[in-house]
Amino acid sequence: MTGAARRVGVALLAVGPRRGDHRVAVRAAVSVAVPLLTVWALGRLDLGIYASFGAFASLYGRHDAYPDRIRMQLAAGAAVGAAMLVGTALSVLQAPDAVCVLVVAATAAVGTLVSWVSRWHPPGALFLVFAAGATATLPADVDTFAGVLLVGGGSVLFAVAITLGIALSRGGLHRGPVRRRERVGATGAEMALTAGAGTLLAGMLALLLLGSHWYWAMVGAVAALGGAHVTARLVRGTQRLLGTLAGVLVAAGLLAVQLPPLATIGVAVLLQAGAELYVGRNYGIAMVFVTPLALLMVQLAAPVDPALLLRDRVIDTVIGVAVGTVVAMVSSAIRRRVMGGHPDPRLG
Question: What's the confidence (pLDDT) of residue 184?
Answer without folding.
Answer: 67
